[in-house]
């Protein structure tokens, strides 16, 4: 089960459309553009963020800064970097 974390801090559980693995197109739709892998430090430090310990991949919009997307404070804390826009947090076994 993946977690979509919106820039406003709201979280939503999401699943692959085919019930097994996310396609590139699905992942791009969640973040609103080209994807970029971001380090998920919360997994290492167990910050208590929903799903952060079992999900090892975090993706954001690669061009989020160019498009002036709003800062995602939750994702920024998780990655120890400034992250903007929506992110998706999921387990690598869910990516095709």
List keywords for this structure.
96 residues, alpha+beta, five-stranded antiparallel beta sheet, 3 helices, 20% helix, 22% strand
- Order of SSEs, N→C? EEHEHEHE
| Sheet with most strands: strand arrangement | 2-1-5-4-3
Total number of helices: 3
Globally, the shape reads globular
Structural class: alpha+beta
Mean pLDDT: 87
Biggest beta sheet summary = 5 strands, antiparallel
Proportion of residues in helical segments: 10-25%
- How far apart the termini lie comes to 15 Å
Radius of gyration: 12 Å
> How would you classify the quaternary structure?
single chain
Fraction in beta strands: 15-25%
Poorly predicted regions: none
Number of strands: 5
